[in-house]
Amino acid sequence: MRKFFNVFILSFVLVIFPLVLNAGDTMRSKNEISHNLQVKLFPEEHRLSVKDTITITIPATSRHEFNFLLHRGLGPESTTPGVTISKEADGHEKTLFDSFKVMLPPGLRTFTLQYQGSIYHPVEAFGKEQARGFSLTPGIISDDVVYLSGSSYWYPVFDSKLISFSLEVELPHPWDAVSQGERTEHLKNENKTFAKWESPEPQDEIFLIASRFTEYIRHSGKVTAMAFLRTPDEGLANKYLEATSRYIGMYSELVGPYPYKKFALVENFWETGLGMPSFTLLGPTVIRLPFIINSSYPHEILHNWWGNSVFPDYNSGNWSEGLTAYLSDHLIREQQAGSAEYRQTTLQKYADYVLSGRDFPLTEFRSRHSSPSEAIGYGKSLMLFHMLRQDLGDKTFTTGLQDFYQKNKFGFASFNDLQKSFERVSQKNLGNEFNQWVRRKGAPKIKLVSTNIEKEKDGFSLSLGIEQFQAEDTYLLQIPVAVTMEGQARAWQTVVKMDKKHIDLHFHLPSRPLRVDIDPEFDLFRRLDPGETPPAISQALGAKKMLVVLPSNAELAMLRVYREFSQVLEMFGPDEVEVRLDKEIKRLPSDRAITVLGWENLFLNEVISTLAGYDVKVGLKDLRIGKTDIPMENHSVVLTGRNPDNKEMAMMFIGTGLAEALPGLVRKLPHYHKYSYLAFEGAEPANIAKGRWPVLDSPMTAFIPFDDGTIPGKDMAALAQREPLASLPQKFSGRRMSETIDYLTKAELGGKGLGTEGLDIAARYIAQRFREAGLQPAGDAEDSYFQTWEENIEGLGRTLKMKNVVGVIPGKKPEFAGQSFVIGAHYDHLGLGWPDVRDENKGTVHPGADDNASGVAVLIELAGELRN
């Protein structure tokens, strides 16, 4: 997830509802089973009726007896003469399915089953929510929605790895149905809906999703973009349809032709981010979050290459989540010049969540079910692909991806197959790389242990000592080194090979070194030292043990809410949580994470003291973080530091003046896991500020003192510019411009006069468009596009809170480092005529189409082009 939820549903079958068949009853070649399903859905009755004509394509002389699984209570019968079906002994009392044996007459390979019954399993939470848990159902037919997958056993599941199917669905009006593949028939009338979906492409399960959808469709080349929304919203649908075309275009060029004829966005009834073959199922809130369209959505689109057409061989490890995360979540940050921070966060999650006893090799990853499993299966895996790319170069790496896709399309593939493809195109033996990163658990620990310089006739000699200090065996590493030199704007960079626990390096440099940085852009998978990363919520939630300290001086009602907060925190966070009153503790321990609750807490000052060095000040009624003032009244705050007696343990403070805000706050904490501080407003609570403290003392950086002993305070020089692996095709869209103009001039905004709600609505709309165009926010608070101030408006007779909407495109080339395009525009107008309008027009709405709306629309389109 991503990134938002990022759950690959194929894994549910294996992890939660495993297929259990006769060990000798195996089919292993492609498309050995095809289904021709005719389905009638009765949502009000939670029931379906099915006729399934099944064709088995293995030779007729090979076998006549097969086993299959079907949801309990569906009672299959065959209408084909000579075919007998018998129920197997019930050895799986807790499973969803019954096991059956079918006997076929000699020479027969096509037969028909009929069955009917109820499937209704409510949605339940799954996994520990240290960092985004999720909910799921094995299958449900309700009066609001239908969700059926392979793990529902709603069709006969044979022990065949891949199947093909056609699916005819009849259901009441105004319902509609979605599945993978292509829709070849679609009829709707006032009584019923009929839809036919066909997938000649091999699949590993069959999905059937239904609800009262409003459908939107757009044809783009050979691929049809579709959107099925449970709440009609043409504007939202158009944004997703356009994004579908652009991302499919980018990935088709990067990896290979899109494998299906359509991709559909489908709105679910519970919060999900699921990627199925040729469609994605997103929850009603998720689908409307402005950042999803350029984060989690491309992740699910890319799964059509990795996971939904090249299927992972789960027995040897699921590689598809890491590769998808690298080519979507990481690539998007790379396009925004933020990939180094993304990798730092990825490595920090591994360090914070994958503690002793939680680690395992990539060959054992099946699906995400906890924060440690995500940190390995997504994080370590994406770092593997990043290191391969750094070693092989962009061109060879891309050729390897294309080779892997071409040779394994619509088949199962393993890490071994990935290794073969990259070795084939690079002509390099990658056995060491795959052995240590895929088949071995753990991570290297490295540090810079010594630096020394000597003056030479034509420059300086720099000597470095680097150590691997993990207890396990040595790793073979390619370690980036950057040296900042006196009088040089760009750093001197190299990559050194390390194949033992300690190496000594010697470099000749043209100018005096001022600082040395090892792995400055976090290109190497390793276990970070706490000094390399800022304190973060993940360090607290990832701890094995946590002590929660309650404020004994709090009012009884607030104290009760804090206790309830602590109980929920245990569900979302550490393995063991102890809750104590502050007056019961003499000294905070150093062997576990600490969470201090409440401004009245006796240990407040002790936690605040851990923030020395960061730009935060706590007063009696408010606190200031950087330039942001946050009043305690009506606000909630989260601050993280490190235990001074054990830097590997977090100290977290949570304070609020609103008891009713705490339930929402504890639910939101896991979603802000990477941040050092948070501020929320109101009972909602709504986030108004978030950020990460700066890194103050990294052991991977060494400053080289001058002769008088003073330490140079120079920042790291500019590093070599890297190009993204792929660029998203941008189109200057006249249709999108018209939509922007129409929105900003609609009568409901009342002319966008100063101080009006209509002007605020317009500002939020423009900010959302900035985000969709990929502009970075440049507002007062992090992740905000708004710059606000108060001004006395002459002629209006009062002071107004004013608001600019500002986005930034950072300079990408080295010569533009530290420079940016700043995007803003005049978007307010005359409202109902103030201050300058003809008398005859006073009191009428002045929409401002030419004065500002058209200019804003052009600017947004231009910004999208400039960003690339």
Question: Which features does this protein show?
Answer:
single chain; 868 residues; alpha+beta; Immunoglobulin-like; Neutral Protease, domain 2; seven-stranded mixed beta sheet; 46 strands; globular; disordered N terminus
Strand content: 25-35%
End-to-end distance: 25 Å
| Mean of residue pLDDT values | 87
Q: Which structural class do you get from the secondary structure elements? A: alpha+beta
Give the CATH superfamily of the largest domain: tricorn interacting facor f3 domain
CATH architecture of the largest domain: Sandwich
The Rg value, from CA coordinates, equals 30 Å
Form type: globular
Number of domains: 5
Descriptive report:
By secondary structure, the protein is an alpha+beta fold. It has five domains: 10-212, Immunoglobulin-like, CATH 2.60.40.1730; 310-438, Neutral Protease, domain 2 (Orthogonal Bundle); 446-526, Immunoglobulin-like (Sandwich), CATH 2.60.40.1840; 537-691, Chitobiase, domain 2 (2-Layer Sandwich); 734-867, Zn peptidases (Aminopeptidase), CATH 3.40.630.10. The chain contains 16 helices and 46 strands. The strands form twelve sheets. Strands 4-7-2-1-13-16-15 form a seven-stranded mixed sheet, with no helix packed on it. Strands 32-31-33-38-37-39-40 form a seven-stranded mixed sheet. The chain has a five-stranded mixed sheet with strand order 18-19-20-22-21, covered by helices on one side. The protein starts with 9 loop residues before the first helix and ends with a helix. The model is unreliable at 1-29 and 128-133 (pLDDT under 50).
